[in-house]
Amino acid sequence: MFHGSMVALVTPMNTDGSVDEVRLRELVEWHLAEGTHAIVAVGTTGESATLDEQEHIDVIRIVVEQVRDRVPVIAGTGANATSEAIALTQAAADVGADAALLVTPYYNKPTQEGLFQHYSALAQASPLPQILYNVPGRTGCDLLPATIARLSRYPNIVGIKDATGSVARGEEILATCGPGLDLYGGDDATAMALMLLGAKGVISVTANVAPRLMAQMCQAALDGDLQTARDINNKLLLLHQDLFVESNPIPVKWALAKMGRIGPSLRLPLTPLDDSFEPRLQDALRHADCI
Questions:
Q1: Residue 221 backbone phi and psi in degrees, to 5
Q2: Which of 34, 60, 128, 169 has the most CB atoms at less than 10 Å from its CB?
Q3: Residue 184 appears among annotated catalytic residues
Q4: What is the pLDDT confidence band of residue 169, given thresholds at 50, 70 and 90?
Q5: Is the preceding peptide bond at 269 cis, omega within 30 degrees of 0?
Q6: What domains sit in the chain, N to C, each tagged with a CATH number?
Q7: Annotated binding site for pyruvate
Q8: Are 123 and 154 in contact (CB under 8 A)?
Q9: What is the pLDDT of residue 214?
Q10: HSE-up of residue 95 (Cα within 13 Å, Cβ side)
């Protein structure tokens, strides 16, 4: 249903911490011009954890309005309270999102049965296409392939974003779930390998700063053109690594500010990039011809 380079879009902010709607709309237009295949609004990279509920919905609405059906818009609507995730998913549907991206409940660490019931409740509460999102390094919760397979029986659970960084885990999901559930990489460094194995795309941080190259790499990988995919990915390798020298989205927002695309603002408890990392990020941007 969704494929290719799906940018986990940053949320630009003004110096007072408010959402910068002008820059947000400009980013959307840039991604459309550069060939990004889908836009994910208010995921982890969009600082969903520090946006209040109204801001969360407003960012999704703004992105939907600006896209105007030119590519799919996937809304991050996960929460560690099932009722909150249901409410956000319904709100995203109301403002026109094409799908929801649902991170595993964080901090409260549910069992596999708890995860199954959480996602079952979401699937039954809204007909919106839903993409599961497993990122145990940030949530302290690991959605296992057997549970993913159980959930894939719901027709509106259409995919899984796996951000474990493990190609072996991706292979296990593909083998366990079969063609009824699409796999998306959630780790830029392993995305090409996963697509060559059968994944349908990547929900990408790197695409924020190198959208055209990421779109071209993904298309080549999906087409089975290994050499082209590898050549492009080699230009992106430093970004795949160095955009994570500090917690996401600190480095990617610094990079976009360096490129003149957004202002430098983050919300506490995130803080600006440490000066010692700036030369590494500049080298990575130059290697990918971003500056």
A1: -65, -45
A2: 60
A3: no
A4: very high
A5: yes
A6: 4-287 (3.20.20.70)
A7: 45, 203
A8: yes
A9: 98
A10: 25
